[in-house]
Amino acid sequence: MRTLIVCVSVSHGNTRKVADALAEELGARVVEPEDVRPEDVPDHDLVGFGSGIFYMRPHRRLLDLVDRLPDGGGTKAFTFATSGSSGFPGLPYTRSLDKALTRRGYDVIDTFSCRGWDTWLPLRVVGGVNRGHPDGADLARARTFARSVAEAVAPRS
pLDDT higher for 25 or 83? Predict the structure, then answer.
């Protein structure tokens, strides 16, 4: 299965750790939005899009790439995020990303999120929150998630 993971990880490498765990399980390569040609994205069987969360949304660089993507033609996709908080019930942080991908013709089959070390300005005073995350348990959950999306794309016969 040809798999690509597009990831923006700018603060502490939280999201990149998750992307690397996913990639290891899926045999995928991880790229930043600027390192992939938008027209090449739908050539994959599965594409992951992930970011840390900034002001309750995925990073602008990732959203800008999605805005430039050609029609996905039903290409299977998943989204993932790391954040300092768990968000608001019923409002996943990746919702805007999921909707943008769906509008572009991608079939978003699932999403993954976990906590990440966050030192956003007011939190910096106390050393941030969630130091040490994503941890081993978070990365194990990411690997389990990767296996489930792989199974959804290429079910066993």
Answer: 25
